[in-house]
Structure formats: structure tokens, C-alpha cells
Write a structure and sequence with these properties.
- Strand 1 and strand 2 form a beta hairpin.
- The strands form four sheets. The protein has an eight-stranded mixed beta sheet, sandwiched between helices. A two-stranded antiparallel ribbon has the order 5-8. Strands 6-7 form a two-stranded antiparallel ribbon.
- 30% of the residues lie in helices and 16% in strands.
- It has a single domain, classed as Aminopeptidase (3-Layer(aba) Sandwich).
- The protein is globular and about 55 Å long.
- Helix 2 packs across helix 9 and helix 3 crosses helix 9.
- It is an alpha/beta fold.
- The structure holds zinc ion.
- The site of zinc ion has 5 residues, from strand 9.
- One of its GO terms (biological process) is proteolysis.
- It comes from Saccharopolyspora phatthalungensis.
Amino acid sequence: MAAPPPCSEERRENPITELTSYDELLVELDRIKRVSAGRIAVETIGQSSRGRDMFVATVGSGPKVVLIAAEIHGNEKTGPDAVLELLDYLGTSDSSRAKQVRDQLTVVAMPKINPDGSALDRRGNDMTWQEVQARLPQLLNAQPAWNYYTDTRQGDDYSQRPGFDINRDYNPNLDYQPQDFPGASDQPGWFVSPETQAVRDVYRSLQAEFGAVDTYIDLHHQGACYTVAGTDRYVTMSLSGKFVTDPATPAGAEYADFADTYRPEYSQRLNVAAYNALQVAAIQNPDFGNITLYPQDIDLPCTGLGSFQLNGSGAVLFEVRGQTQTLGQQHREMLTQAVYIGLDGILSSIASGQVNQLDPAAYDRIPLTDRGQRTTTDVTDFEF
Ligand SMILES: [Zn+2]
């Protein structure tokens, strides 16, 4: 096997102007709402730590809810672009495929759930521990959360503007009241950020209205230099449907309360639907074939995926190649397209009912990721 072409995880100053900024998102959501002639509703779901409005866009009137979240890490920017493209399609297309999705599903998209981090083009949000303590007096003597950044991460200096990795701020107990700090990566988070509170509240209101959130999809980026195991091809995107230890196993005993709602096989089927759609697209562009399984030996109840999966949603992680500090907007079109194709594959498969015919064992046949090119030990560079 030939060596892959050179690839570096070193931070570079890359342009990102082709990727949708927060201000452009406002314009684009407004445009999509108008051209959809009433099919797309856009609502404000709260404000970020720095007062930016957060949005949810809804399309479809079906009984099954698919909730899509993008850019919880502000340097992971293909998600919003793919979501906007998807909304545009679902809001305007008269194809039978789009109609079936609208009839069978209610698609709820949160295109930029960390707008402050997005504006700073960094992983963490822009909220201090002191602000958290001021809002939650019971934390006055608590140690700062383990996921509170005050140093340098992924080349970004947080010393002057500290912030949280808010994708460690979720708790499977959606009623949780913050305590138990500083916590750890394999422990639940706290809903201390207004951003995760807003997502949690959307999830809960959908549960109340529809009985359940059928599917939750979270859009991320990962390292730039991973290869498809056994090949010299760089990974375009990794997928996963596993985020916590199975509550039905002894090792997952701490999640026993969720044993009845956890549906690992459904998550596997959803991932297979995305994988299959990308393999079909690979006939046109081989890059879409370079899809792998994200490492499965993780236990992250503090993530949106871990928490919502325990609450009964089928869950899918997309991990696109390269965050902005390494790739910037390089390969933007192809990578955004890969996300779009994966999302469309999942929605079509649920809407047609085909997802139930898929073999969950096919999930285990998705190629593994070779992380051999890893060049730094900062784990935040590599985790979703
Ligand atoms: Zn991420």
C-alpha cells in the first residue's frame, strides 16, 4: 500500500469566508423561509452567552421527529452549510422524495448552536466560570468544570476569553440541577450553558408534542489526517451510533435507568442508511466512499448524542475531515456535500420505512479509522 500524501495537523491561518457566518445565517434562514412559501418555520430558541439569538428551523408535518444539531464546536463549519442546503431542498422541492420526507417526518434543525464560538472560530463558547457562579449561587465554592478552558486548545488562546466545551455540558437526566463539579469526561455534564439549555428545551418540547424524538443527528469535524484503515485514502467523514456503555451490560449499570429507552440497533440502522447513501454517491466521486466508523470505545454521557440516545433517540454522529485550524475552508464543497448526502440518506430511509429493513450488523462492517498519523496529544483536537 502506498503512503498517503503528506498531511499536517499543525495550526494554519486559513481563510473561512466561504463558510456561512452568523450574520449570513440570519440572512439565509430568512431567505429560505420566504422561498418555502410557508413550509419552513424559523423560531428563536434563546440567546447565547453573549446574547446572540439561537434558531431552530422546522419543516414537515409527519409524526416522526428528526432533530439535527450543527456547529456546537465553533470551528466545525460544514454542518450549518449542509443544513441550510437541506432546508432549502425540503422547503422548495416538489419531488416525491421531498414530499415523502415532509409527509412522514418533522425535521427540526438547529444550524449553529454555539454562535459565540462560531464567531471566534474556536471550539469553546464564550462564557466565564464567574458568570456561571453568578447565575447559580450553589456553585459559589465549587471548582470550575473540567471542560472549562483557560489555556490554549487547538492553537486558540482562551486565557483572555475563557470558555467551555459545551458538548460536555449535557446530562442524560434532562431535569438535572447543576452540582457535582468539576466532573470528568466519562461523567454527565450539567446544562450550565444557555446554549445547551436551549437545545435541551427544544428536545423536551418535541418529546412533549410528539411523544419521542425519533432521531438525533449531531454534526462535527475531526482530525484532518486520518486514513481509512488498510488504505492510503484520507477519511472524508466518520460515522458513529455509539456514545455510552450499553445500559443492559454490567459496565453500563450507571445508566440502568435508561435500559428501556436505549435503542442501539436503531442507531446502527440509521448509520448504515447514511453510509449506504454515501457509497452510492461514491460512484460519481470516490471521496464520498472514504467513510469510516468513529472509535467505539467511548463513554461520553456529557454529550448531546450520549444524553439523547439514552433518552430513546436513534443517534448519529458525523465527523467531517479537518477543523478550521487545519483545513480552513479547504474541500468545503465536497465535505459539505458529504454531510448533505448522509443527512438526505437518513431522512429518506426513515420516511420510506426502509431503515427498518437495514441490517444493524452492517454497521460493524463499516471500515475502521486509522489514526496513525496523529501528531499531537491534545485530545480535544480529535474528539467530537
Ligand atoms: Zn465537534
